Give the backbone structure.
Amino acid sequence: MIDLIPPGFVFIFGAILLPLLKGRVRQAYLLLLPILAYLSLLNLPEGTGFILKFIDYELILLRVDKVSMIFGHIFVIMAFIGFVYAIHLKGFGEHIAASLYIGSSLGVVFAGDLITFFIFWEIMALSSTYLIWARKTKASYNAGFRYIVIHILGGLALLMGIIMHVAETGCIAFNLMELTGLSSYLILIGFILNAAVPPFSAWLSDAYPEATVTGAVFLSAFTTKTAVYALIRAFPDTELLAWAGAIMTLYGVIFAVLANDIRRLLAYHIISQVGFMVAGVGIGTALALDGSAAHAFAHILYKGLLFMGAGAVLYMTGKSKLSDLGGLYKTMPITLILFMVGALSISGFPLFSGFVSKSLIVTAAAKEDLTPIWLLFSIASSGTWLSIGLKLAYFAWFGEDSGIRTKEPPINMLIAMGIASFLCIFIGIYPDILYALLPFESVYVPFTAEKIVWKMQFLFFTALGFFMLLKYLRSKPYIFLDTDLFYRKGAMAFMWFLNNPLAWVGAKITRVAFEIIPSSAIWLSKDPATFLKITSETALLSLSGHEKRVEIEHEIEKKRERYPHDLRKHWTIGPTVFWTVFIFFLITLIYFFLM
Amino acid sequence: MKKEPDFFDKPKNIKILKIIFYISLVVVFIVGFLIPPALFLGMYVPAFYALFGFISCILIIVIAKALGHKWLLRRKEDYYD
């Protein structure tokens, strides 16, 4: 059927034409891609399609159900917003990378089998790396390298798990998995690495702040959310994930409070917010799983919006550190307002999108009597408002005037932020449009008097705490160690080990094997008697007393002079001959004794 | 560049904002008493969420500042260079 085109293909094959187009045509074409993908998405019937034969397996490129559809919807919407934001870019490299990245993310959420899933998963990792490298600074080059190495390692764990799983079950279908045995744990590690669950989270906070202004917007949306999708599909109701997610929420927030770079601060909040989703998967009730999907949907919009706002600041001022910023409200008021919509959404203010999505997961934790998890969620919620809505907004836009005088960003950036802001508020006011997409059909009423009042009390008194401790929160130009310390310093230590002790040992081995042994052997073969004499006298030298020494040294000297050749000068053919003969000898010996 | 005084540079405006903020605090605090008490955790403290929000905020700042001490996680920006 012609209408059964996987939405991801629109982006992947659509990217081919990008280098051929220029100017306005390319801009129009970029916006056309998500529109075409959305049309293909709307036409998809439930069930499976687009099945390819591969060796003995059937690859299902299109598995459509409500879980894949909600992620498909938001991915395509975010693709449109992201392309509007990035439309001013002159080159086509970043557009191609972004297009492949979006297409492969869609490929992952519509994949019906593990092989298809894995292939798209890896295309995602490769294409997203270019969005970091495209910034073309030394820092981004190095961060991109660390990013791709970590993702390749995670991909390898996933691949090993998949191969073992297929060998065990004989089936490549991507469905619910039991968390028993090595294969399932390897697959889980592959998933939670992309979901940035600590200690596998440092790649995110390390690389995203170094990406391009527009690249970070795409990065913030797709990688972690495809991982959430994979976890919903494979590992719902896994207690380990409930706790890991709950700890993640607070982990991200605490590092965000410390962070000085605005995009690193936001990157840590991806870890924190994805923690809610991972925990929702772990709690595993219909309400919690719906909460994870809903929160992923809302999160992509407001996090994209926040990254666009921070990116606009970086784009216009060239600065991204809070210690360099301040007083921007004078020249970037529209950006401030749009950014604050994102900040209020992520903090879960009533009538903004976070309020109607995050509370599903928090309520699910309360209903399951998971009090410690509920407490961690609530404390992290306070920290979210504290670090984005208060700290970041205050020190970038208000605070001490840095003297920076700039302008609002280009109109396309403002439009993209405007669309995202509109959707954040629209979902916040009219959540039924989001709830209609939820896959597990839970029932939740967001707007009750007590929920609103409690939330307002919570957030207002958090603000009181912030203003009381304001003077301790001023950012200074420092960095804070995360788990990337182990591989960044570890790699340095490893390289030192290679270059120093190991290289020394290697040089010694080379010298002994290729110089000393062969030349001695050759020497021996020329005149065994003199060789033995010289050797024995050299040995004697080390044993004898002082008065004998001079005499023996003299003897050795004389013998060396009489010796036919100084073989060290032309030994190049020697070692090869020696080792060939030696190995022949060994083979003969083995042959002789075994036969 | 010249730093011209703007809306938030004027002490009078800051004072007005502060008053609005304090009034909001009092309002949400009082409205909390009109709502049926929270049932979760068996808490019947009407202003539970006000207190909880405030304590959470302080707690996070204290934990973050403690972890961010130079003996623990804080390093100079060129640490990895």
The interface with chain A takes residues 1, 3, 6, 8-9, 21, 24-25, 28-29, 31-32, 35-36, 38, 40-41, 47-54, 56-61, 63-65, 67-68, 72-77, 79-80 of chain B (CB under 8 Å). Strands of chain B lie at 74-76. The first strand of chain B starts at residue 74 and ends at 76. Chain B has a mean pLDDT of 82.
